[in-house]
Write a structure and sequence with these properties.
This protein is an alpha+beta fold and 421 residues long. It is 15% helix and 47% strand. The chain is built from seven helices and 30 strands. The strands form five sheets. Strands 1, 2, 3, 4, 5 and 30 form a six-stranded mixed sheet that branches. It has a six-stranded antiparallel beta barrel with strand order 7-16-17-22-20-18. Strands 24-25-26-29-28-27 form a six-stranded antiparallel beta barrel. It is globular. The relative contact order is 0.15. This is SpoIVB peptidase. Pfam families: PDZ_6, Peptidase_S55. One of its GO terms (molecular function) is hydrolase activity. Its EC number is 3.4.21.116.
């Protein structure tokens, strides 16, 4: 009986020791899948624990290699199943990890002007037409075209601008009174017949739509890959201001912008950077992708971050920790400045642009902007000497806090087509 009590007591003490041990707690929190580690990541356990808990690894997928070489286009990774066993016998925890090579990027922080032309012409509203009888009609709406749809062709002719749409509709009305409209609706390509109505007010045939073919705004550059001159910016997708739909990019560019005014953020009213494009911009870039985690393309010209003139390591998802960090952004003119923040929460298993909650702690930034404001999206987040993410959204009811995206997710979105090797 006494031996049994001693055994129970010893077991309780050992369990208590395990619960309080930070390395064992880290093992318990080990995710079951999608943990991403650097190839140079240190072992999970060292010293005493390395003798008790054994780590077994097995490759579960072939390496993935991009078709290009260098920088973002040369990512090589492999998935590994990791099993931790007590004394090398009893399984404690397992999980799938993606092992990544070391990678270095140059942090951004520069204010950029973004200008893009849509692929097709976006429907942003319905407009009543007063016909010759004085009645208000909506030909396009009645045919089934909705706000958020994208017009692609009218009478087999591509439309790329709002003027293209206006001219094609007017011509269709004059010639045969019917417009064959090819359009995209919720990812599907559809075709409808619409009868244009002669508008007494404008003297032209119309179908009753408000349309838009371009968008522009101010944001922040997140990073540049020195090997390929690829860049990432904004940290979130560009959507139309009226429809909140993702804009399909036909053509676009970024260039330097200067900030001349700040609207401070406050509860219920997000602040905003007020800026303009720089006429003789020292750099420019194409917009090749508009994705959930930002815009991407090729950069030309001179980019200078006064704090990081050389590339710094990428911090993968598993390396992002709750605690202090820095962001880099412009609040006046074109000068990139450093500000303190805190990463309050890290949310794994999210593949969108809301992977961490960040809070501005820098008194000077709080005084100048109230916290996170529009136009700050894309500001790089640096923690422990590594670029780990970018600012994306502000909390509407708390301007001091907002979301950040993992730099890992931006890199995955920005990489070109890959092939298995």
């Amino acid at each position: 009986m006494r031996k049994a009590r001693i055994l129970v007591l010893f077991s309780l003490m050992f369990c208590t020791f395990l619960c309080l041990n930070p390395e064992f707690q880290q093992l318990v929190e080990f995710p079951e899948q999608n943990l991403t580690l650097n190839l140079q990541t240190e072992p999970q356990f060292r010293g005493f624990w390395s003798k008790i808990v054994k780590e077994e690894k097995e490759v579960v997928s072939n390496p993935t290699i991009s078709v290009s070489s260098g920088g973002l286009d040369s990512k090589i990774s492999e998935k590994i199943e990791v099993v931790y066993k007590l004394f090398g016998i009893f399984p404690i925890r397992s999980g799938e990890i993606e092992v990544m090579p070391p990678m270095k990027l140059i942090p951004g922080g520069q204010s950029i002007g973004v200008s893009l032309q849509t692929k097709g012409v976006l429907v942003v509203g319905q407009a009543a037409i007063e016909d010759k009888n004085g009645q208000k009609v909506y030909p396009a709406k009645e045919a089934g075209i909705e706000v958020g749809d994208t017009l692609l062709k009218i009478n087999n002719q591509e439309v790329r601008t709002d003027q293209d749409v206006s001219d094609a509709v007017n011509l269709a009305g004059q010639q045969n009174g019917v417009a064959h409209v090819l359009f995209k609706h919720q990812g599907q390509i559809l075709e409808k017949l619409i009868k244009p109505v002669f508008c007494v007010e404008t003297g032209r045939y119309r179908v009753g739509l408000f349309v838009r073919d371009e968008a522009a705004g101010v944001g922040t550059l997140s990073f540049i890959d020195p090997a390929t001159n690829q860049y990432g910016a904004l940290g979130h997708v560009i959507t139309d201001a009226d429809t909140n739909q993702k804009i399909e990019v036909y053509n676009g560019k970024i260039m330097a912008s200067t900030i001349y005014s700040i609207q401070k953020g406050k509860r219920g009213h997000p602040g905003e950077k007020i800026g303009s494009f720089v006429t003789n911009s020292p750099f420019s870039g194409t917009i090749e992708k508009n994705t959930l985690t930002g815009i991407f393309g090729k950069l030309r010209g001179q980019i200078v971050n006064p704090f990081y003139k050389e590339p710094i390591p990428v911090g993968w998802e598993s390396e992002v920790k709750v605690g202090p960090a820095k962001i880099y952004t412009v609040i006046q003119g074109e000068k990139v400045e450093e500000f303190s923040i805190n990463i309050d929460r890290v949310m794994h298993n999210r593949t969108d642009s809301k992977n961490m909650i960040v809070r501005v702690t820098d008194p000077r930034l709080l005084e100048a902007t109230g916290g996170i404001i529009q136009g700050m999206s894309g500001s790089p987040i640096i923690q422990n000497g590594k670029i780990v993410g970018a600012v994306t959204h502000v909390f509407v009811n708390d301007a001091q806090r907002g979301y950040g995206v993992f730099i890992q997710n931006m890199i995955n979105e920005g990489i070109n087509n890959k092939v298995a090797a």
